[in-house]
Specification:
Helices cover about 65% and strands about 0% of the residues. It is mainly α and about 300 residues long.
């Protein structure tokens, strides 16, 4: 298999293993299906649709949304995480998935699989904090706190992913065959315009939450460029948890004795390729996990030489 074929196979496609983008899709979709299944059950259990809707919101949906009232938040603190994965309307889910795919695919292509999930979570947390502060501290919102809708959906989290991707590679071009390509910042402007047009029908607190999500996406990339990975502790925690339940997954350290040349089964003076498939796989895995920019100059040169040979 050639290096080009191998690299294409390892691109962050939707069906690839250890793909954080697919995991985000799955969580959002599963919660949406669960909520709407329960909604159907409620509507089949009551003769009055209004009563069914009311009880469904009070007994089910309220436990998935982030409440504006701090008193309610204390009772259900998990909603500060759960709300960003919960969608009640079909349009809300479709919007989140489409925009997340548009920006998340590019982000994974540029940085690997380990950045999108932390950025999504940070964006959701920042949006939740901004939402709670605005509705409880801004008088215009606080006066109507009892009628302000609870926060639900991945809007702030997706905004963080969009701004992070644009900050990371503002000159990245889409559809290169069309006039040299469309800069990614154009797509971001369209996304922000559509997003704020949709939240305008809700309330200003939603807009502030999305703005906070975008700000944390910018900060994440800014810190990343300074060599500080804000998501490292999350990835380390996940790795520790995986290793805790998968002891066989621990890396086996090969001794120098096992690496000695005389242990090789290859015949002496046999002309072989200077490219090792194992090393090539390791480099491609590194690109997949952490991005091309993390390769050393030696690894980039190795990859260049491998592209000229058929393995």
């Amino acid at each position: 298999m050639s290096i080009k074929e191998n690299y294409t196979r390892r691109q962050p496609l939707l069906g690839q293993s250890n793909n954080a983008l697919v995991l985000l899709f799955a969580i959002n979709a599963l919660i949406f299906v669960a909520l709407n299944f329960l909604k159907v059950v409620y509507f089949l259990s009551y003769n009055d649709n209004i009563a069914a809707e009311t009880f469904f919101h009070k007994q089910i949906l309220d436990w998935f949304t982030l409440p504006a009232s701090l008193g309610k938040l204390i009772i259900r603190p998990w909603t500060i995480v759960l709300y960003m994965f919960s969608h009640y309307s079909v349009w809300g889910l479709i919007s989140t998935v489409l925009w997340l795919w548009a920006f998340g695919y590019l982000l994974q292509d540029l940085t690997g699989n380990k950045k999108i999930f932390p950025i999504y979570l940070y964006g959701g947390f920042a949006g939740a904090v901004a939402y709670l502060l605005s509705v409880n501290l801004i008088p215009a919102f606080y006066q109507n706190i009892n009628i302000i809708p609870d926060l639900i959906g991945g809007g702030a989290a997706v905004m963080a992913v969009a701004i992070a991707t644009t900050t990371l590679a503002p000159d990245y071009r889409l559809f290169p065959l069309i006039n040299g390509g469309i800069p990614i910042w154009v797509l971001t402007v369209i996304f922000v315009a559509i997003d704020y047009a949709s939240v305008a029908n809700s309330n200003g607190a939603y807009a502030i939450a999305h703005l906070a999500g975008g700000a944390i996406g910018f900060i994440f990339v800014y810190q990343l460029r300074k060599g500080k990975d804000m998501g490292k502790w999350m990835n380390d925690l996940v790795d520790w948890f995986n290793n805790l339940f998968n002891p066989d997954k621990k890396n086996k350290i090969q001794s120098n004795k096992e690496k000695l040349f005389y242990k090789s089964d290859k015949k002496p003076f046999l002309k072989t390729s200077g490219i090792s498939q194992q090393k090539l796989d390791e480099i491609l895995d590194k690109i997949n996990q952490d991005g091309y920019h993390t390769l050393s100059s030696e690894e980039k040169e190795y990859l260049k030489r491998a592209s000229k040979e058929e393995l």
